[in-house]
Design brief:
Blueprint (H helix, E strand, L loop, with lengths): L13 H33 L5 H20 L12 H5 L5 H32 L7 H11 L2 H24 L4 H40 L6 H17 L3 H28 L2
Helix pairs in contact: 1-2, 1-4, 2-4, 4-6, 4-9, 6-7, 6-9, 7-8
């Protein structure tokens, strides 16, 4: 790839997107290999025929690690020497560069990270010999609760996009700034999720309290199960709070994309 400028009349070209990706591929292939190996190990851990308590520990460990891999995928662009000055000389538009970054960060990385573990979960749910009650309940909570699932997915996309923005924006210590971006945005998403959970818990507590006053069921164990079920239904339901939080995250995704575009176009000199 040679040249110092790009003519706007050339339009958008996926061939140049591909060529820009080929420039990065020697660096990216090692991340993809490592991520694929970790994903395979995690998938195997998800279907090990072990006792319930060990399955619970493995489940929590696997599904704590995998999202972190996804969030931190863009850090690979900060690895090694800073080549952004050379990138400015390539006949590739800002839109084409950003398209490659997002294809890699939001399509390729999630497929590599999550495909095998999700397949393992599917196998687990089809295999009664592997199943335990607590793990099945956790899987139902994690993957089956409506709008909260959309919030989790869009929240993860936002965190990865913030990581990419920090990597592209920082002039020095790019990897450190990317990690800070992941932590800060993860805390922000966690606060939003905490608000949903708190509101749902308050509603569940009020309902249980009123049921008690009206002479409803007073069995502590059954009451606790009903309370948790009510809370999870409220968390996953479509209501003004969850719609507002999902809308906030989507708006921030567009803002992060625009800021990254502007950074690549104007700042990476």
């Amino acid at each position: 790839m040679t040249g110092t400028t790009i003519n706007n009349t050339d339009g958008f070209s996926f061939k140049r997107v591909w060529a820009f990706g080929a420039y990065y591929m020697p660096r990216l292939k090692w991340e993809l290999i490592i991520y694929a190996a970790i994903s395979l190990v995690c998938a195997i851990l998800c279907i090990l025929p072990v006792i319930e308590d060990i399955q619970m520990v493995l489940l929590v460990g696997v599904w704590s690690l995998l999202p972190i891999l996804f969030y931190c995928g863009p850090l690979i662009f900060a690895k090694g020497s800073d080549t952004r000055i050379l990138e400015r000389l390539m006949p590739v538009s800002t839109a084409e560069k950003l398209t490659f970054y997002y294809i890699y960060t939001l399509v390729i990385i999630p497929i590599v990270v999550f495909l095998l573990p999700m397949l393992a979960i599917w196998i687990y749910k089809l295999s009664p010999a592997l199943q335990t009650a607590k793990v099945m309940k956790l899987y139902d909570i994690k993957f089956n609760y409506g709008l909260i699932q959309a919030i989790n997915i869009t929240g993860g996309i936002l965190i990865a996009m913030v990581c990419l923005f920090c990597v592209e924006y920082a002039r020095h210590n790019r990897m450190m700034f990317g990690i800070v971006g992941v932590i800060a945005s993860n805390v922000f998403i966690g606060i939003l999720g905490g608000i949903i959970g708190l509101v749902a818990a308050i509603k569940g507590f009020k309902k249980g309290f009123m049921d008690g006053l009206n002479g409803g069921n007073c069995n502590p164990e059954e009451t606790a199960d009903n309370f948790m079920h009510q809370v999870m239904e409220d968390v996953g339901s479509v209501n003004p709070l969850t719609i507002s939080i999902l809308s906030i995250i989507i708006v921030m995704i567009f803002v992060a994309g625009w800021m990254t575009y502007r950074t690549i176009r104007e700042r990476n000199l």
